[in-house]
Write a structure and sequence with these properties.
Blueprint: H1 2-30, E1 38-40, H2 43-49, E2 52-54, E3 57-72, E4 78-81, E5 87-92, E6 99-100, E7 105-110, H3 112-143, H4 149-175, E8 191-195, E9 200-205, E10 212-213, E11 220-223, E12 229-235, H5 236-239, E13 247-251, E14 260-267, E15 276-283, E16 295-311, E17 316-318, E18 321-329, E19 332-337, E20 340-344, E21 347-350, E22 361-364, H6 366-374
GO cellular component, one term: membrane
Organism: Parafilimonas terrae
GO molecular function, one term: transmembrane transporter activity
Length: about 375
C-alpha cells in the first residue's frame, strides 16, 4: 500500500515539473529575451512578422508653418486730419469705412477768425500798394537829394514790413484752403472746406456737427490701403525657414475658407520677450473688408526641404511619445525615442537623425514589435 502511494506521489511530481517546463518553454518562445525597451523574436516570429528595415534616407518634403497676427498699416499710410486754426464743424458726411478720394471735400468748418483773417489780408494788401508807392517816391526823391536818407529808409522799412505781413497772411489762408490770389472784398467767406489728402478709406470719425475743435484735435483718421500689410508673429525656431519673397496664405477666424495670397516683404531682426519675430507681408489683392487691427491666421509653406525621414508606419506612439525600432542584433530590436517633424507623401521627418544614422530602422511591422514588447503578459 505504501509503495503504491509513493509511486502516485512521484508521478504527480513529474507531471508538475513537465507542466512547468512546458509553460516556461512557451513563454520563452514568445519573448525569449525581451526586457525594458528591447524585444527579441524567434525565427518563426520573424518570418510571421515580415519585418522590413532600412537606414535613414533624405527626402524632399514640404512643410507648413501655422502662425497668426493682425492687419497693420505703416505710419506713413495713416493720416490724421485736423484744422490748423481750429473752428466749428458745420457739416460732414463721413462714416467709418467710407471711401474718400484725394482732393475731395470731406468737411465744412466755420469760425469768425476766418473772416478776420481774410479781412486782415485784404487790408494789408491795400496798405502794401500805398507803402510800395511811397517807397518808390522816396527813392526817387532821395536820388535827387530832395528827401533825406532817413525818410527813404523809413519808407523802405514800412514797405518791407507790409510785404512780409501780406506773405505771412497768404500762407495762413492757404493752411485753411483759401486761395489768397482769388480773394477780394466780394467773396469773403465765414466757412472753409477740409479736403482729403489721400485716396483711401475712413477708419475713425472723432467729431460731430457743431463741435468746436482746437488746432491739435483730430477730426478724422484716413488710411491708404495701398501699403496695408499683414504683421505675423513667428517663433524664433521657425524664422530661419523664411525668406523675403516667400508666399503664404492668410485667412480670418470668421471665414476660414476664404484665403488671401500674401508675400513676405520684411523679417524683423528683433526677438520679443515671447520669443517671436515680426514678419511683415504684403497682400497681393487687398480686400477693403479687411480692416487694420483685424486678427488673422496664416499658413507659410516651404517647398522641397531636404530632411532625414522614415516612412510614417516606422514611427510608433506609446504613452504620447514617438519611437523608432532599431535593429541591434539577430532578431533583436531596441525601441528608441524619436523627435518627429514635418510629414508629407507618406514620410516623416526625424529631427534627431544623428541618433539613428547608419543604423537599420524597422520601416514595416514596427507596431507588431510594440505589441510584442508591451503585451508580454497577454501572450
Amino acid at each position: 500500500m505504501k509503495a503504491a502511494v509513493i509511486i502516485i506521489l512521484i508521478s504527480i511530481f513529474f507531471i508538475a515539473c513537465n507542466s512547468s517546463a512546458k509553460q516556461q518553454s512557451q513563454t520563452e518562445a514568445v519573448l525569449p529575451d525581451s526586457t525594458g525597451n528591447t524585444v527579441v523574436l524567434t525565427d518563426a516570429q520573424m518570418q510571421a512578422a515580415q519585418l522590413q528595415a532600412d537606414t535613414l534616407q533624405q527626402q524632399q518634403l514640404s512643410f507648413i508653418i501655422k502662425v497668426n497676427g493682425s492687419i497693420d498699416v505703416p505710419p506713413q499710410n495713416i493720416v490724421s486730419v485736423s484744422v490748423p486754426l481750429g473752428g466749428y464743424l458745420k457739416s460732414t458726411r463721413l462714416l467709418p469705412g467710407m471711401h474718400v478720394s484725394k482732393g475731395e471735400a470731406i468737411a465744412v468748418m466755420e469760425d469768425l477768425q476766418y473772416i478776420q483773417m481774410q479781412q486782415e489780408y485784404l487790408n494789408t494788401k491795400s496798405q502794401l500798394v500805398f507803402d510800395e508807392a511811397d517807397y518808390n517816391r522816396q527813392k526817387e526823391l532821395n536820388k535827387s537829394k530832395a528827401a533825406s536818407d532817413k525818410s527813404f529808409q523809413q519808407a523802405q522799412l514800412k514797405y518791407n514790413s507790409s510785404k512780409t505781413s501780406l506773405n505771412a497772411l497768404a500762407q495762413k489762408l492757404k493752411l485753411i484752403n483759401i486761395h489768397p490770389e482769388q480773394l477780394n472784398a466780394d467773396n469773403i467767406s465765414k466757412t472753409i472746406n477740409v479736403y482729403s489728402p489721400i485716396n483711401g478709406f475712413v477708419s475713425k470719425v472723432d467729431v460731430n456737427i457743431g463741435k468746436y475743435v482746437n488746432p491739435p484735435d483730430v477730426l478724422f483718421e484716413l488710411v491708404n490701403p495701398d501699403d496695408i500689410h499683414l504683421n505675423l508673429k513667428v517663433f524664433e525656431k521657425d524664422v530661419n525657414k523664411l525668406k523675403i519673397g516667400q508666399h503664404l496664405t492668410a485667412y480670418t477666424n470668421n471665414d476660414t475658407g476664404r484665403r488671401y495670397d500674401c508675400e513676405i516683404i520684411l523679417i524683423s531682426k528683433d526677438i520679443s520677450s515671447d520669443r517671436t519675430v515680426e514678419v511683415h507681408c504684403h497682400f497681393k489683392n487687398f480686400d477693403k473688408n479687411l480692416l487694420p487691427g483685424m486678427y488673422m491666421n496664416a499658413d507659410i509653406e516651404e517647398n522641397n526641404v531636404k530632411v532625414y525621414a522614415v516612412p510614417e508606419e516606422a514611427v510608433v506612439n506609446f504613452e504620447a511619445k514617438d519611437y523608432l525600432f532599431v535593429e541591434t542584433g539577430k532578431n533583436k530590436f531596441e525601441m528608441a525615442p524619436a523627435i518627429i517633424g514635418i510629414s508629407e507623401k507618406g514620410f516623416v521627418e526625424v529631427k534627431n537623425a544623428g541618433v539613428f544614422k547608419g543604423k537599420q530602422i524597422v520601416t514595416k511591422g514596427a507596431y507588431t514589435l510594440l505589441m510584442k514588447l508591451k503585451n508580454t503578459g497577454d501572450d
